[in-house]
Design a protein that fits this description.
Two copies of one chain form a homodimer.
Chain A (H helix, E strand, L loop, with lengths): L8 H6 L17 E2 L12 H15 L10 H15 L10 E4 L1 H13 L5 E6 L3 H8 L4 E8 L2 E2 L1 H14 L6 E4 L13 H14 L2 E5 L23 E6 L11 E4 L2 H10 L6 H12 L3 H26 L5 E2 L7 E5 L4 H10 L2 E2 L1 E2 L13 E5 L5 H22 L1
Parallel strand pairs in A: 1-12, 3-4, 3-6, 6-7, 7-8
Antiparallel strand pairs in A: 2-9, 4-5, 8-9, 10-11, 11-14, 13-14
Helix pairs in contact in A: 2-9, 3-9, 4-5, 4-8, 6-7, 10-12
Chain lengths: 399, 399
């Protein structure tokens, strides 16, 4: 029996991309993980989740363990609506879909919008999982570079104008992480936010705003694109992974009702009553405003430690953006970061090589992503020290 | 902005089917629910799940709340492999994918196998959610009727031979629920099981075996198709929804490694660490053999109550199959069951009208699905009494 002969056309095409699972090597336990975009272990509310489960099952018994019927689970939507409203996003019940994390939300958006001919705009670099998702549906991309102020909207405008003038197809949507971008940590300026919305209206495309890090600002907060979108063009994707716990798999899309209806049609894992009702119970008994203050000050302090260590230990050839929030610092170095990773792991540290974040992987050769969210302050400092030493060594051996 | 103009071709096509959400009306609390394919409330282990969460988070703290890294979560796969092995299905680690329930498993199989030209064989009647999933990918179906012995494989053979002779396209896979079928409760005979595997080899198609009810036999158990498949043609879908709790959303596919790799590629909700680790902890501390004995005897007793009530209260025009396991009894009556439902709900009972289970909905007009799993014995009896009275009334008014 020839297994491959049974695959659909789109499956055959998708499997021609990089083999699945070709990703970071497994990390030994003692490794200082500057690669992981995980929340800090001590900020994960395991005790509170335990209490939430106990209180939920005491109150509702078997209800959250069926397909439907948990009153608490029904509240999660309202709670998320309220959280969005505090940031200027007023969405109705029919404009919100709860998903199993942001990735499922991005996949559902791709499912309803992308044909094999669809042109998609992505940032360069961008979130690798989103790239993989889009590549399952199309091979047509416009890749627009990021600088310290986020997506370079002037370049985007030039390219759109050029395509229009030449009579080429125009993009159906832009995928952007405007606030504390993954992997660069950059924040799109207010001017550029307005500019990109103007371009979307002018060239008639949609915007998939990935806002996983939006609430984790250090000083001033940024306005989500969704909050200043008067045209219904923004499909806003959010998640509780970075502010509560990724293992709960709670995310959402906020968008025009027609989009929500179509996404619900294709969402075939059904709801997740136990996880959703547990999260609703947790949110009900948690002062999220206070929790967010704790998260912000903790991550700001950890980021400062990382930035100081970079100043102290990096060779002069290295450069980086200073983030205003989120989990990440994006580093440019003078060596090939994929080759560097093996040596780094021998030295007991990890990072993510830049190539994973680009459509054209070779564009990422000299970059790497550092995360300050997971490792503790002592290990962050020690990790950067080892990375700095390693870079000095490699550079001097190459001279 | 014209929202519909942004939809992909396949989305536009899928949305032309019945509008999403057009399904059973909401049921008032006091309604006797003979419609719900839910486990019996007192058999849902809410206390044990609470204890599993407490013990898991005590042992692993934050680990099951991250993306990866929970040792307990890793054990779930082994536990499912062991459970499959007790039923003659010996699958390797690379032949098993954990999914968010059986529906996600079916959707992933559809995702990798179905083009818009793909021909799919379904049973008539069959599980409506699976029909909806397949219809998102193709509009080409062969529909083969069920009788008291399950899928009529002779009819299938005739139709396949005819298509081959005429040079028509042949099907890529058969979707079947051989054991305690939803909605008919029928069990495919051992002869027909062998026959369908022979046909699959002869006409080179795959078999999607949906085995959600396979462990819930009353007397003798049946051999899963996967256990007698020597050719790698069976993609076996299972779930803990019917034997533990649907709200946990734990299911799987067991299939050849190439299929598993492709499905994992398209599975973009990531894993569900909290739910999966909780389930692994629950299974570790539960004697599932004993639990299954309790489930079997309880559901057998409830089924007996329903069958006795049918004998006692149904008009002579009604007929049904006697199930050997599972959750359902399939009833044929002399009236239109979609029209009957409104009156039934006024009488405080619910069932699922037959039309939902057929590709050609009109084929289901005179059928309805009764579930004996959820309502208690007293309510089952009372519910059937009311249904019988109602049928008598409607029949006599139509005379």
């Amino acid at each position: 029996m020839n297994v491959a002969s049974f695959f659909s056309k789109s499956t055959k095409e998708a499997l021609q991309n990089d083999p699945p699972g070709e990703w970071m090597p497994a990390l030994p336990n003692e490794c200082i993980r500057l690669s992981s975009g995980y929340p800090a272990p001590h900020l994960v509310p395991d005790e509170e989740i335990k209490q939430a489960v106990a209180s939920l099952l005491k109150e509702e018994q078997d209800l959250p363990l069926h397909y439907l019927g948990s009153p608490k689970m029904e509240k999660l939507k309202e709670q998320i609506q309220e959280r969005l409203a505090t940031r200027g996003m007023h969405v109705g019940e029919d404009e919100l879909l709860i998903t199993a994390g942001a990735c499922q939300a991005i996949d559902l958006i791709a499912r309803i919008l992308i044909d094999d001919e669809t042109l998609v705009i992505v940032e360069a670099p961008t979130y690798m999982e989103a790239l993989e998702i889009f590549q399952n549906y199309t091979s047509h991309f416009m890749s627009i570079p990021i600088d310290k102020d986020g997506l370079q909207t002037d370049l985007l405008e030039d390219l759109l104008a050029e395509r229009k003038q030449k009579g080429l197809s125009l993009p159906r949507f832009l995928y952007t992480i405007p606030t504390f971008q993954n992997p660069t940590g950059t924040n799109m300026t207010e001017e550029r936010r307005k500019h990109v919305l103007k371009l979307a209206a002018q060239y008639d495309f949609l915007i998939l705003e990935d806002d996983a890090y939006g609430e984790l600002h250090f000083e001033k907060h940024s306005t989500p694109l969704k909050a200043i979108d008067t045209d219904g063009r923004v499909l806003h994707v959010g998640s509780l992974s970075k502010v509560v716990a990724p293992g709960m798999r709670i995310g959402w899309v906020a968008a025009a009702p027609e989009f929500i209806t179509a996404m619900a049609w294709f969402k075939k894992d059904l709801d997740h009553p136990f996880a959703q009702a547990t999260m609703a119970t947790y949110l009900e008994s948690t002062d999220m405003k206070e929790r967010l203050e704790t998260l912000r000050s903790t991550y700001q302090a950890k980021c400062s430690v990382l930035l100081s260590a970079l100043e102290q230990y990096m060779p002069t050839s290295a450069s980086w953006y200073v983030p205003e929030g989120g989990y990440f610092v994006w580093l440019k170095v003078a060596v090939d970061t994929s080759e560097l990773l093996a040596q780094a792991m021998e030295a007991g540290i990890s990072f993510v090589p830049g190539r994973y974040f680009f459509l054209s992987q070779e564009d990422g050769t000299q970059y790497l992503r550092l995360s300050f969210s997971y490792a503790n302050e002592k290990n962050i400092k020690e990790g950067i020290k080892r990375l700095g030493n390693l870079l000095e060594e490699v550079e001097s051996s190459e001279r």
